[in-house]
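User: Please predict the structure of the protein below. I'd like the answer in structure-token form so I can feed it into my own downstream comparison script.

Assistant: Understood. Taking the following sequence of 154 residues as input:
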Amino acid sequence: MARVLDHLDKSILEVLNRNSRLSLSEIGKQVGISGPAVGERIKTLINTQVINSFGVNLNLRALGYSIEALVRIKPLSGQLRKVEKLISEGPRFMFCDRVTGEDCYIARLALRDIAELDDVMLPLHDCAETNTSIVKSSVIKPRIPPINIKGQAE
């Protein structure tokens, strides 16, 4: 069952989503409560597994990656585990989701240039069908979904 949060929890999550490095007192200023109160609420959000972890939002271009690609991957018969191993061990794969539908996986790659795409994809061609799209831009950056708030109708 989904945990229902109050408006302060929602506000704290929104602030953390924008910048998880802010001090508790700065978050408190933005949401209208004290820093220690923010700390307690964050601790509760972690303990109730609403927050799994904190991370960074990397500028891939600053790290030399000028291209991102989305790859749909459909393993050949009997090759599912081999494909999964190649993906999990491939350092250019930033994430991969197992999905329903015609394909089994959708992955996102970080590439220094287009020539790297062949090097990354070549091992997969013996055990899977792939369909690659180059990312031109991101319309929506990662964000939190709508959050149920106590006392509000859904």
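That's the full token string. The mean pLDDT is 93.
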